Amino acid sequence: MQAINSSTPFYTTNSHSYVIGRPYQQAVHYTGKVKMVYDVSENSRLQIQYAIQNNRRQEYDRDKPLNDSLAALNKPEFLFDLTTQTVDAVYEFNRKGLEISGGVSVMYQSNYWQGRYFIPNFNAQNIGAFAIAEYNLKNVKLEAGLRYDVRFLEISRLIKGKVISPAYRYQNPSANIGATYKDLVPGLNIGLNAGLAWRPPTVSELYSNGLHHGAAAFEIGDTSFTAEKAYTGSAVVTYQANGIQLRVMGNYSYFDSYINLEPVLPPTLTIAGAFPTFKYRQGAASFTSVNVSLSVDATKQLSLFTRNALIWAYSHATNQYLIGAPAHRFQLGARYSFADRKWFEKPYVELVAAHTVRQYLVDEDADYSAPPPGYTLLNLEVGFTAHIRNTHIGITLAAANLLNTKYRDYLDRFRYYTDAMGRNVSLKLNIPFGDIK
Amino acid sequence: MNTTFKKLLLGFTALALVTGFSACKDDDPGVENPEELITTLKLTFTDSANTANTFTVTFADPDGPGGNTPTTYDSIALQANKTYLVTTQLLNESVTPAEDITLEVEEEKDDHLFGYSSTANINISATDVDNNNLPVGITTKWKTTIASVGNTTVVLKHQPGIKTGDIALGETDVEVVFYTAVQ
């Protein structure tokens, strides 16, 4: 509580260095993919893909073991290794504006941990079968999709010296239907979509029970969670003509069993101090959102744009707005494009003012500190493409939070303790290797 | 379908089966770091004017962080204008017999420091020193003045190679706040 109410972060130091000391995280990430495409006939083909991904994360806490000899080993407090393998097979067929695809996908995932208990080891398998049909008429596109998934989950836990392996099975259909009407008047398109979706609870939602070092928080899961199911409907209108690009999208999703991570008071008291505590909770919830973006070409060089996202997340279980949902965001920007000069192509300057309102919907007293005030950031970007021989190298210099505004973001878990990042200048080089000859 | 394709398809199926089976047998529950849990902080007070008057103040969370809430969380009640001699003890009561962690601190006293601060009217000073003549704080002297209430914070800092007597340094192993009344 002292750390949360303090005006400056609890641990600060006057000496500044680039040496990475504890606490820190070290993550290694591998990924690999094999893909095969077989043209069965002129208008049908089969694709098979195998992919593997491995993530290894090590968390080093600020506090080392009490014992000097154990501390000297400098071992991570926590090691987490996750391997995911997928095999997908898709058959595609098209004829006279009708495109049909169908297939199966198999996923296998396993994890391993060492150190302080966070979530148990698990094996998960997912088997899914799907079919998608798309029918293109002159001005109308119709789409429909159906999918059925079965997910197996097996947990291994060591409880009082015995290995306990509870197993879970989740299975549900998902579906989607959509229609798009093109060029109602030239450039104006309208689309409607309805869907049914689901996801099984994750292992951390089921079994978390411990200190999350990255966030200095105690997180608690619930093994009684069922699959999360959603019913969604959306409508989108786009207009693109006469130097105007407009996109308006409305979306409504109803979840009958939404899983949300919410703060619970009081904090967990341990012998090393009190830690903010978060519990996963499941209940009915709905998300209503409106996205509006508009871009107008004022002159040949100058375009003005705005991008806005409004979202209302409501819990029907508690009849209150959902804690931890994003706040409304508004952006206003201008982009000036210069003329090409020899190898110096597509130079531009872009300035964006991004405003995030205070998350005023949620119950302030249900959190460790009230949602932070709204804030406006100014972001500047300058870039061009260098055309050297046959290669197009993209070069971008960007300054996020140009004015070094002090702010805290509602969704940032560190907001309880410290301000968000100040001015951040980055230089990006984008070299497409495929072009080099 | 041509034969090359069939072979490839067979290869894929075999690969999927092998990875599936090899991993299915994995029911390894994971490896936990050597436990060095501190569950209990115990302060033993002795009235310096009457050594028969002793009492203890305890914070105990026998199942460690999380799980059940601490089972014992005493407050400190002292008399005004008195001097108490206090011995601090750390225990791991999740094992039987309970392990005395204070011995480990004592052994590595050059790298550890107990700090005490109170918002009640108590003056607390360490009565023990390490090999470099810096305080350790396993034994302390508490001098009370006028009646008051407040909070007393007990911390243990691990300060390998950096100990100067400054409690702000190092890493927090223990931090407990006791409600305190001087009557």
Please describe what this structure looks like.
The complex is a heterodimer of chains A (437) and B (183). Chain A is mainly beta. Chain A has one domain: TonB-dependent receptor, beta-barrel domain (Maltoporin, Chain A, Beta Barrel). Chain A has 3 helices and 21 strands. Chain A has a 21-stranded mixed beta sheet that branches. In chain A, strand 4 and strand 5 (121-136) form a beta hairpin. The radius of gyration of chain A is 26 Å and the shape is globular. The mean pLDDT of chain A is 87. Chain B has one domain. In chain B, 15% of the residues lie in helices and 43% in strands. Chain B has 2 helices and 12 strands, in the order αβββββββαβββββ. Chain B has helices at residues 3-24, 102-107; strands at residues 31-32, 40-47, 50-60, 72-73, 76-78, 83-92, 99-100, 112-118, 122-126, 139-144, 148-158, 171-182. Chain B starts with a helix and ends with a strand. At the A-B interface, strand 1, helix 2, strand 3, strand 4 and strand 5 of A face helix 1, strand 1 and strand 12 of B. Strand 4 (98-115) of chain A pairs parallel with strand 1 (31-32) of chain B, so a sheet runs across the interface.
